[in-house]
Amino acid sequence: MSKLFPSPGRRRALQGAAAGAVVLGLLMWWLLPLGEPPPSGTIVFSTGTPHGVYQEYGERLRTALGKDMPGLKVKLLNSAGSQENVERVAKGDADFAFAAADAVETYALRNRASAGRLRGVARLYDDYVQLVVARDSNIESVADLRRRTVATGLPDSGVRLIANRVLRAAHIDPEKDITPVADGIDTGPAHLRQGRIDAFFWSGGLPTAGIRELTRKFAVRFIPIGGALVAKLHTNTQSARYYRATNMPESAYPKAQHGSVVPTIAVSNLLMTRKDMDPRLIEWVTRTVIRSRDNIGTHVHSAQLVDLRTAIYTDPLPLQEGARRYYRSVKP
Description:
Oligomer: single chain
Largest sheet: 10 strands, mixed
Structural class: alpha/beta
Order of helices and strands: HEHEHEHHEEHEHEHEHEHEHHH
């Protein structure tokens, strides 16, 4: 005779499974905003040059976004860096980008109308200006770059913007007093090793993979950029207010620094978007940026510095409405 009802033991197992399903469902509902499904569609993200922090961060963030929003396709675009990234977002050629605060302010001062479309998602980490020479070079200061061949970054990069300003602050005309070369982090290290350039500027998170690899293959050192030079920068242009004097910690590139810090300049990095982007999408993206910090940070050291308490300070950009919603929702 067949059983019409399950045994007590089986009944308890079924009841436990059902209860577990309910709990899981409630948990998923709590994790999703208002119980809604994740946003879907396609977004374009402008990152940076190969071997730079922007590109690596962008690739890791795309993976994190894909886990949280499986229906969202993230298209990554390489770029020269901050200046190009800001322009792409302002013109609608990209939906998101990384950019240094000085580049954002510079664009806003030159393009007030289109800059009004720009919004901040999060303050991420600081870029450090890194002026690299061969260890046996007789270059000891920025002033010693006169009549040298110097890589000042790609056109439309944040590196080019800040390198030219540092040179002018040291009374060096970047077009006349040096032989400028348009190398980025993808080509500058190799050209230094080959003796094709005497020095190269880089502005990026610590450590930058391209420079870390260079220090493992070639003896280099960093030229200090002291506080007096930073103070002079502050008197030259409005957007230089985002520069601050700091020290590159001795742990950044141990093979090159040998336990010594390097005086230099830091400037904050922002994740940016536009005012007209869907606030619900921006809220989800902001959540992923904050929650993926530790996982991405195991591969991209700079990502470890993303902090919920400082992420809201996206000056000179106001927060996008979706980002504002997220920060309000997690405010203690």
